[in-house]
């Protein structure tokens, strides 16, 4: 055991040049280790990117991607000039932005509250309770929401009314965002809870001795410990504003709430798979992805300026 620990210590003390020589000498091992991940990435991530060409073609299944006639930017012009373009874009942005504004702080608050619980048993039971909704599938969750908000559901029984909430466009965003927070907030708080374990206990004790209240302890001791994770998570979530989930929006969608629930991803599904207009739906999906990339770069630059040059 001592000999093994001695070898580990010696390896840790090697200079970067010696480590690089070791890697070059045993490069076959690293290739074998990385090969499965690289192959999966190439096959399932980069391989399908060739299908982007469909957005610029009058795609025909029989002729294939390489044989279909080229139409250039025709589908993009068609989509941008569509009278429904602004509605679908605004619906997508509203769901995403409101979800970010309301949903992003909740996991942080949960982690801070959990960190104040000193009894391990109580803390574990609460964590189990708030983590459990994450393991409910989206479709089951949507079924639960529909039952809960039905005219004869628990909410109407409690309020003494018989409103069909799922047919109200003005209620759709609240339902969508609130159910998403309930499902994911607990699980999203895990990384913040883990980061808070690295907060300086000495600094916390010193703050208590100096008379700092709970809010001051959180602001000056605990939040700085999770600041970097908050920044990274905010950049990633803000950069995915346009990548709102299709399954949940489609499962909660009804004919009556379409003015608020029809977003770009559900529109792409209906145009592409239901109507068979593959080229046009691919163009809309590509437009969505390009906007995401632009938002990610923009948000990263803004956060860098506000966070002393630290971003992704």
TrEMBL record:
Keywords of the record: Cell membrane, Membrane, Transmembrane, Transmembrane helix, Transport
SUPFAM superfamilies given in the database record: MetI-like
GO BP term (any one): transmembrane transport
Pfam families named in the record: BPD_transp_1
Annotated localization: Cell membrane
InterPro entries per record: MetI-like, MetI-like_sf, UgpAE/MalFG_permease
Primary residence: membrane
GO CC annotation, single: plasma membrane
PROSITE patterns the record matches: ABC_TM1
Superkingdom assignment: Bacteria
Matching Gene3D superfamilies: MetI-like
Family: Belongs to the binding-protein-dependent transport system permease family.
Protein name: Sugar ABC transporter permease
């Amino acid at each position: 055991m001592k000999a093994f620990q001695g070898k580990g210590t010696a390896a840790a003390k090697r200079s970067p040049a010696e480590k690089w020589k070791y890697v070059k000498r045993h490069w076959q091992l690293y290739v074998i280790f990385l090969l499965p991940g690289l192959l999966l990435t190439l096959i399932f991530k980069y391989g399908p990117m060739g299908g982007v060409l469909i957005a610029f073609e009058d795609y025909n299944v029989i002729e294939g991607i390489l044989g279909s006639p080229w139409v250039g930017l025709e589908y993009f012009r068609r989509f941008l000039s569509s009278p429904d373009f602004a509605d679908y874009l605004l619906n997508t942005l509203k769901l995403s932005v409101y979800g970010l504004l309301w949903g992003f702080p909740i996991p942080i608050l949960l982690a801070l509250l959990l960190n104040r619980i000193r009894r391990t048993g109580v803390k574990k039971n609460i964590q189990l309770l708030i983590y459990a909704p994450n393991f409910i599938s989206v479709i089951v969750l949507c079924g639960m929401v529909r039952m809960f908000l039905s005219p004869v559901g628990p909410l109407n029984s409690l309020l003494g009314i018989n409103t069909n909430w799922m047919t109200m466009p003005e209620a759709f965003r609240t339902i969508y965002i609130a159910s998403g927070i309930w499902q994911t907030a607990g699980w999203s708080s895990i990384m913040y809870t883990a980061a808070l374990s690295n907060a300086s206990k000495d600094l916390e004790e010193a703050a208590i001795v100096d008379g700092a209240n709970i809010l001051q302890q959180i602001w000056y001791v605990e939040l700085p410990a999770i600041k970097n994770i908050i920044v990274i998570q905010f950049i990633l979530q803000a950069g995915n504003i346009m990548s709102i989930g299709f399954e949940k929006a489609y499962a909660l969608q009804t004919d009556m709430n379409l003015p608020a629930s029809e977003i770009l991803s559900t529109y792409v599904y209906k145009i592409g798979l239901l109507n068979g207009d593959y080229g046009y739906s691919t163009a809309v999906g590509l437009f969505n992805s390009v906007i995401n990339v632009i938002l990610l770069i923009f948000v990263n630059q803004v956060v860098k300026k506000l966070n002393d040059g630290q971003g992704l």
